[in-house]
Amino acid sequence: MSHDISDQDTLRIRGRFWSVLRALLFVLVIYFIWNEKTFIAATCVLAALIMGWINTYQLHIQEIEKPYYRLWLNFIDGLLSFAVMTSILIRNWIKSQEMEMILAVGCAFLLTRLIAYTLFSIGVLHEGKKIPRRGSWSKLATVFITLTMAVYLLHLEHYKQIAMVISLLLMGASSVSYLYWYYRDPAHRKPLSVASQLTMSRIVLTPFLLWVFFYDNDLNYSNNIIEFKILALVMVLGFMLTDFLDGYLARKMGDVSTLGKYLDPFSDKIANMTIFLCFIATGYAPVWMVALIYFREASVETLRTLGASEGVVIPARRSGKWKTAIQGIGIVTILVGALDPLIEIIPNYQIIWTYLPNFVMGIITAITLISGVDYFFSSKHILKKFV
Description:
By secondary structure, the protein is mainly α. About 80% of the residues lie in helices and about 0% in strands.
């Protein structure tokens, strides 16, 4: 037992050493930024990224460090990250006389996240509870924030906005996950399962998809820059992947929960309906098609609610699974079709594109309605109790 404790103490000391060294590197980064030595500053940031990776994924310092040490090490790291980002923002502003709004938003997010995390953690410790371990979203957010610093310092213009948007998405996801844990009944607090985290990620990231879709403030999505078209496509593919993984992992890990059963279809509908509304705005879908899709989704949810009131669970039907798959494939087809390179690769593509979105949405609408009819016919025994 004493041998195990000694090993843990050794790992803690190593972790603290890397944390202090990372903090010193950030101080040097700030110095080099203000002395116009951005390449050296970027090199230091990349070194800090490696140290953070070692601490998080090799030493697992978040799992073995004592609570108050962990709190203050995270606070110092977050404060210095904010100081570096702010230095980049102010320095660029002085040189160009233009404020980079997305960088300013990133700085604001960093500060808000730091203050919220510190206050919540102190509150948890005062309650006599353990500070929750940082989840995957939080760890990835820290990595991407550091990577974003390097991108800005190296003046990689084509990747600045994408790197910052990804960092904002991850910060948002990690913040919501922490808030969920904090505001649950203290007697039942426990980390969210991986499956539930994946399900909730779709709900959390959906509003950010709106931002990415209309990043250029132009309702015509075809005019959006190619980087953000690709990012929107990647986000939608991520939604589809998490939709598959959350159910698979819940069954595989024996962690099927009531929360997951309700959140999974809810998150699907939130994500898909948001995308369909974006399609209306940019002219890829007529209003009547999306209205019919919404009518079907709302009707089936009402049917589920009626079933629940009678103690009957309406399981997912094969037609519902086909509907979800067709909707996902159709959305991806439209987003891929909107990519600029296809215009140059495929002859007469502009003519094809004039009809493609509405054709795909027509198929989606038809399959969605057929699925709704199937649900109602299979649930006649429930309806008879109310009609």
